[in-house]
Amino acid sequence: MSVIDLHPDSQKMKVCFVIMGFGKKTDFESGRTLDLDATYESIIQPAVAAQNMRCIRADEIVHSGIIDTEMYEMLLRADLVIADISTGNVNAVYELGVRHALRPNSTIIMVEDEGRLYFDLNHVSTFRYNHIGFDIAAREARRASTALGELIAAVMVSKKPDSPVYTYLPRLQRPLLTDEQYAELLDDAEAAQTKLAGLMHRAQMFTNASRHADAKEMLKLAAKMKPGEPFILQQLALATYKAQVPTVLVALFEAMDVLDILTPELSNDPETLGIAGAICRRLWLELREPVYLDLAIKHYGRGFEVRRDYYNGENLALCYEYRGERQTNPDEMKFDFMFARKVRVAVVEGLDDILSMDDAGDRSDIKWVYASLSNCLLALGRVEEAAAYEAEFMFNMSTVWMIETFQKGKSEIFNLQPNRRSNA
Fold this sequence. Notes:
Elements: H1 3-6, E1 14-19, E2 24-27, E3 32-35, H2 36-50, E4 53-57, H3 69-77, E5 80-84, H4 90-102, E6 107-112, E7 126-129, H5 138-157, H6 164-168, H7 182-208, H8 212-225, H9 230-243, H10 248-260, H11 270-287, H12 290-307, H13 310-324, H14 330-355, H15 366-379, H16 383-396, H17 400-422
Parallel strand pairs: 1-4, 1-5, 5-6, 6-7
Antiparallel strand pairs: 2-3
Helix pairs in contact: 2-5, 7-8, 8-9, 9-10, 9-11, 10-11, 11-12, 11-13, 12-13, 13-14, 14-15, 15-16, 15-17
């Protein structure tokens, strides 16, 4: 069944073209990672649908023409453009500039509350919304979607320029383009959007069911649709090593090959670094070759340094202890164990700050906050507090693989306990 069959009146609907990144992206100025898919699915898409408009995301345009002809055509022809520039995505900001040059009005800029406006946009009206952790709380999603819908309705009837170009050059005439191939472009983009979203949702469903090999196959198909997309490659590397097929070692090396495209040795992305660290740590556990442990420390350390990411910090401390127990020099051994302790103290302080916030319970990663607190406190000898947070994790967890991951981390702490006590 074609897109037109599914939406018989779609050719009569106005079109909203959405400019934004894909998946989870880190804003390196604020150090926060935002789930931009959650922004699109929870706020933008329902707001646009409520105004009876077709919603097409820029990432789904098939780039087959010279200098991305289709992209420029959409930026010119779309009845409305929404640009989310929350993480300073250079493509989104550039495409926003092109839209401002092509159309005097019907453009909305979005930015997350803690995000800054890039280039000369501080004087331009923007729509703001709030992330909690990676995700968006249900209450905020409802508020923001309703407010954005109201803004869309107002923008679509307003004749006032919202483009700085046409504001300061009021006599400038915008270019015009014929209808040739535009309708076909819309249908192709909408179909690609539906297909990619379906692959990513099925991959998540398989991951939640601990069917990592099936998730891997879905992500491989998604990666073919969007070559080089960091979020998809990160998830593919994760699913690949968790699938453990055909063997644990082969899966780990294959996962590293996938992640190498993102050059983890040069990356500042905490997600890339955390996955690279996890692969190297598991390679060390399998092969006991020090080079992999040192690489794990390098990757986790950079991920923790970039934004005090608690996942990277928790695992960095564990790797320092693994190295510490193998040191032959007493001073080096003491340094590694002391540094591990300092990292865990910093992780606990950071997570305590998170839990002190009124909306902490709305975070989508709250279960992992509890898990990291439990394991870090256990390693620091604060056993009763660790048990309390473990109970919170178990209450909030939703899948078997999450429990297995937590229990594996806990067992590693217990295995290192004698050395930790002797080097305290």
